[in-house]
Amino acid sequence: MTSAIATTDLDGLELVRRGKVRDCYAVGDDLLLVATDRLSAYDVVLSPPIPDKGAVLTSLSLFWFDQLKELVPNHLITADVDEMPEEVRKHADVLRGRSMLVKRLDMVPVECVARGYLVGSGWKDYQRTGAVCGHELPEGLPLSVKLEPPLFTPATKAEEGEHDENISLEQAMEIIGEEKALTLEKLTLEVYGRAREIAAERGVIIADTKFEFGYDAEGVLTIGDEVLTADSSRFWDAAKYQEGQNQESFDKQMVRDWLDEQGWDHSPPAPVIAPEIVEQTTSTYREIHRRITGKDLES
Prior knowledge:
By secondary structure, the chain is α+β, with helices and mostly antiparallel strands. It folds into two domains: 1-104, Phosphorylase Kinase, domain 1 (2-Layer Sandwich); 107-240, D-amino Acid Aminotransferase, Chain A, domain 1, CATH 3.30.470. Helix content is 31%, strand content 24%. It contains eight helices and 16 strands. The chain has helices at residues 53-68, 86-89, 92-95, 120-129, 169-176, 178-200, 253-261, 275-293, and strands at 14-18, 22-27, 30-35, 40-41, 44-45, 76-78, 99-103, 106-107, 110-117, 131-132, 135-136, 146-152, 155-156, 204-215, 221-224, 233-237. Strands 8, 9, 12, 13, 14, 15 and 16 form a seven-stranded antiparallel sheet that branches. Strands 1-2-3-7-6 form a five-stranded antiparallel sheet. β14 (204-215) and β15 (221-224) form a beta hairpin. The longest helix is centred in the middle third of the chain and has 23 residues, at 178-200.
């Protein structure tokens, strides 16, 4: 286990933005994405950071970019710090294993969510309305039931500190146009379908996931940000799956559960995460990395 990195301050590089997890720097016309070990829950960044988390997110994204490159182009230029410009290489000790040099994209202002199981906010919407993002579903479906075919359930991109809002395909069309929305629906479900086949071979269910797409300088639709990580996806152990109940997830759910047990009202500041929860969360992230990639995270 490595020492956790909560934030970066890279001398000589322009900080473009600091997200909940990633610090983003300008490198010429490109961007350097640095996955820190920050963890957020209920849209609040928590303390302390989770050791190895940023390295797991980066390694998982690299695995999936490679697996899915025949289906969709991605924004990766290189994740090898030694191949990056000199102003980046001088920070190699901090960046190695947790950074990607990527192409700038003109990002689509809609998050593309694929749902293969009825859980999370989709389950809450279904209980309230009988539908998920405009998709009418049969009555009486149980929690965690498999959805066939999977659903495309887009969401708005909220400002920092606010919640994304589930929307229908029709609402997405109003934001980005009918043709673009239909293209994203098709691509999202194709990528999710291929990814869940790969995960199933490894005994893992991808219950749902979120993709972000943009257009590169040549106008090519490209997948960006991270892809199919424990921060953007809900991973379950296929051997333990049982319809009708909540599943154990390979993600930060244990942190959310612990926070709820503390009686926290989800307003900052959040309780400091207990050491045993930090340790368990690191183990969970490392375990899903091992299951998906077949390799232990390099220390």
